[in-house]
Amino acid sequence: MLAALLSPIALGLPAGFFVPRLLAADPTPALQLAQARTVCAIPGEPVQWIADYCMAMLGTDDEIAASDCIGEQIARAPKDGCAAKAHFKQRLCRIVVANGSRPGSVEACVADPEFGGNTVSHGGVGG
Predict the structure, then answer these.
(1) pTM for the full model?
(2) Which is it for the CA torsion 120, 42, 92, 76, positive or negative?
(3) Cα separation of 125 and 95, whole Å?
């Protein structure tokens, strides 16, 4: 059954396209392939969310001043990029809601697809 689902035609590939035997025999690589194609709904890169979180936590817009925090948080961040972005988006939302720079709830902030710090919004520091 799995082999039929992973046939070249079922995958949307040309009929003569080679599908590695391992992929057809073991669902783990197929699952990894599907996960790799999953797009994270949170924009930016994890390091950008970490930078925005650290700068907000320290009350600065200077990434150099926040570099120790950024390094510590990178080491502690979830290894999955999307999970890391979600984690630091929530932490950043807690800060901006608590300090009054964003109205509403933390949940509303996290759910807002437009919310992001300056580093995320500008595609990097100084961008």
Answers:
(1) 0.69
(2) negative
(3) 20
